[in-house]
Each structure stands twice: as C-alpha cells, then as structure tokens.
Amino acid sequence: MKYVSTRSEQSILASEAVLKGIASDGGLFVPEVFPSIDLKSMEDKSYQDICYQVMHLFFDEFSKEELSGYIQKAYSKFKDAKVTPTISHDSYHFLELFHGPTLAFKDVALSMLPYLMTGSARIQDVQDEIVVLTATSGDTGKAALEGFSDVEGTQVVVFYPENGVSTIQKKQMTTQKGDNVHVVAIDGNFDDAQNGVKTIFNDGSFNELLHKKNHVLSSANSINIGRLVPQIVYYFVSYVQAVKDRQLSMGDPINFVVPTGNFGNILAGYYAKQMGLPVHKLICASNENNVLYDFFTTGTYDKNRPFKLTSSPSMDILISSNFERLLYHVSNGDTQFIRQAMDDLVAEGKYQVSESMKKKIDMDFYGGYCSEAETAKTIQNIYNKYGYVLDPHTAVAAKVYEDYKSETGDETYSVVLSTASPFKFTKSVYEAIFGPSEKDDISLISALAEETGLKIPEDLLQMCNSEDLHTTLCFKDDMKACVEHVLS
Ligand SMILES: *Cc1c(COP(=O)(O)O)cnc(C)c1O
Questions:
Q1: 106, 142, 281, 303: the active-site residue
Q2: Helix, strand, or coil (residue 185)
Q3: Is 439 noted as a catalytic residue in this protein?
Q4: CA 31, 145, 122: angle at the middle one, nearest 5?
C-alpha cells in the first residue's frame, strides 16, 4: 500500500509514512486507495484476528508473523477479553474503548504505534534509536508513555505544563515505570510545551547532534497513519459483535456516534465505511467548542471564537487536524484546494468548501454538540436509568445521539463510542451524579466506586499507591538542553 500527501503528489511506503508522521509539504498521508474487506469473513473472529485482517491491508510490508506478533503484544495489555466490548442498555450501545492501560481510547492506537515504528525503522534500515518527543495536555502523554515503555530501540520524552493537567493525569505520568521513559514538567502552559517541542523538531543542528549520538526524533501525534489505522479496527469489531448478539443481520446498516476533537476517531469510522462496512451515518459530537458542528451546518470551517475549557478536555480543540484528510477524500484529491484552504485557515482562521463537497460530506456525516449543563445532566440521567456511568466525553456523544434521533426519526442501530473511563474524570462525573463535593479528583476515586458499586480499575489503584518517579522541572526556554540531558 502506498500513501500520498494531502497537499501534493508525494507518494511513499507505509513504513516511511509512519516514521515521518507528517509530509514534508505539511500535508497528511492518506492511503492511495481504500482496500475493501469481506465483512462476512470476520464473523465470530476475535479482536486480534479482525485487527490483523484490517491492518495487513494498510501495512503490507510486514510479514504475517511480525504483524500478528505486534497485535498480540499490544492488546495483551487490555483488561477486557474482547478488548473493546459493546455494552447495551435499551437502545443505547456503548463501544467501550477504555480498557487499556491509561483508561482512554488513545491506548488502542498508542499500544500499536511503537511496534509499527520500530518495525518501520528496521524496514527502512534506520540504525538510530527512536526518540519519541511529545508535548501533552494530559491524555496523549500518558498513553504514549505506556505504549513505548520498555519497547526496545525507543526512548520517550514527554513535556507537560506543570499546572495545566488534571491531578489524576499528572499522577499517571509521574508514576510511569520503564527504563526508557522521561517525564518533564515545564513552567508554562500547553502552548509553551508544544512550541518548545516544535522548535526542537525544526532545529537542524540539534537534530544532527542527536544523530551523532545515534538518536533520531519522532512524533506520536494523532496525524500519524500508525495511529489512524488501528482505530479502524473497532468499528468492524463492534459490528461483528452486534451481529453475534443478534442485534443486526449481516449487511444491515449501522450508525456510530463519536465524541470528537481532532477528528481522528471518527475519520477511522469513515475509512471503515470506505472499506465496505455498511455505515449509514457517522454522527460527530462536539462539546461547546463546536467548530465542527458549525461546519456541518454551514459548510464554513471557522475557528475564530473564544476557546472554552470544558469537562471534556480532550475535545477542547478548535483545529481538528485530521479533517484535512476528509477534505482530500471528498474533493477527489484536489491538493490545490487543500493547500489553499489550509493557507486560509492560517491567515484568516477559516475556509469554505464547495457545494458538491458539502453534499458528499452530508451523505456520511451529521454534526451535533452538547453544552456543559447538558453533559452533566446526561451523566446523571443515564446513571439513574441504567446504573451505568459515563465519562463526560461519552456523555456529550450520548446527548447528541438523543438529539439526532428526535430530529431525524432515524431508528438505525447506533453505537456510541465510549472514549474514557469515568474514573479518569472523577470529579466531573461524581458531581454530575451526586452533587458538589469539596474533595479532589483523587480522593473522589473511592467515593465514586463506593456510591456506584463500580470497581476501581486496577491500573488506577496501582497509580494511587505508587511513588512519583519523575520530578524534573524544566524552564520553558531550556527544553532542548533538557532533552539532551535525559538522553545522556
Ligand atoms: C482524544 C480523545 C477524544 C477525541 O478524539 P479525536 O480522535 O481527537 O477526535 C475524545 N475523548 C477522549 C477521552 C479522548 O482522549
């Protein structure tokens, strides 16, 4: 399988695309064609088998043994035998993507990426040790640390804003085990961390210096195809489970409702549809940062608005990077249009798509959003009705699904993607159900468990009882020196 950039005619192998992450013209890599899949052949198969069936089509440079081995290792860390089970309550079906080591859906992809990266380095004959450098506002950093921890041939360095992540997120990172992991707080906000990392990536002489010490920088961010492709898998897995549970007959349509930030998760659902999964609608759920909702309503992508901090922080995003890939597909690969649109986005903060593109998008997508008050209310309602506890991101999607149903009358079997364990956002969840509390996130973990009867996830318990291993604080202007120091 070859990949092309969304902004020019560059065409490269999967192994190169995984190592590069982003194209040199600034574009994202997309598959040259969508492979098709025989859905029927997936019936009764395990997560791992379906994962192989999907992934080998996109990563055909790996042998069957290699790729199967990666899959076994990556998903052995998940706490549910099904890896991503679908849990039903009446007409709600929740695809739980949070049974990995950090309790959020990013584990699905970040458990695979390290193997795809080291495997790609071997294919490309890269001798240097891969140094994954990441700035995080919380979730990605921890998932990258877990994914790369003790993976041979890699080091991982994560910078986080000292006062810009939640208590639980901070504790998750500072207690991270592994000989190759480095966690550093900086005296700035997330933008400072991200700018620092970008500067390091673009510093030619620093990269040369690292190369002399047998290090090469790489990125684990969500535009890497090595993160996108593993996310296609669970759309098929959920469908196959619905058939097995006799909720659907093979070939029936299905909807997916996706709590969306960077547009990676829902784009993977679009890819599944292009490969032959009978998806009727992909329902894109936003929080109060509703740029995408406005786009689906008007056809104009406009990020000019205040940025809001919400109870679903992983969706607090004004520029959904992966949206560029959708534009590529619905414009039939019109790279000139995309370059112009992305330039407009930088210069004016907005761009518009043609009527025909908008029409195509409307056939596959529906956009909705959910306010902060509605998010809390939804957590409470679902708990009161079913005793089932949603995290705030999933609650946004559940509410948008309700709105969708009452607006369209569409009764198609619909799956809501559940992207985080409620224990990861304990305070918001606890207060939504039981009212205000003086206690902080960490103290509320056991309170939430006691009052709802839920079991505290093992990894979280372990975290609470672990010592902080990473206490380095770095000035935001010293990040380069800090990287050099932790690698020596
Ligand atoms: C990252 C994340 C999202 C958003 O997913 P995108 O692929 O960025 O759209 C939603 N929920 C949770 C919990 C996340 O961590």
A1: 106
A2: strand
A3: no
A4: 50
